Amino acid sequence: xxxxxxxxxxxxxxxxxxxxxxxxxxxxxxxxxxxxxxxxxxxxxxxxxxxxxxxxxxxxxxxxxxxxxxxxxxxxxxxxxxxxxxxxxxxx
Length: 92
Fold this sequence. Notes:
The protein is an all-alpha fold and 92 residues long. The chain contains five helices and no strands. Helix 2 (10-17) packs across helix 5 (82-89) and helix 3 (29-49) packs antiparallel against helix 4. It is elongated, with a radius of gyration of 15 Å. The mean pLDDT is 90.
């Protein structure tokens, strides 16, 4: 199942997992990434929940941005290897 999901989300994971340069992953890096991705997901849900009826389309910009950040963090945190997590944090 994990390999099938890695194939589906390869467009996100492949650029982050590419390279031969050395990298350093902190032991807490993946956990913090998953926690922050969850917080951004909750922010997206909260913004959508507190939307005023009849509000304009621009109101959905934070929902989309927070949702994409959350989805990317969850995909890399759950499916990515250590190199991908290190590239998210900028560790080299």
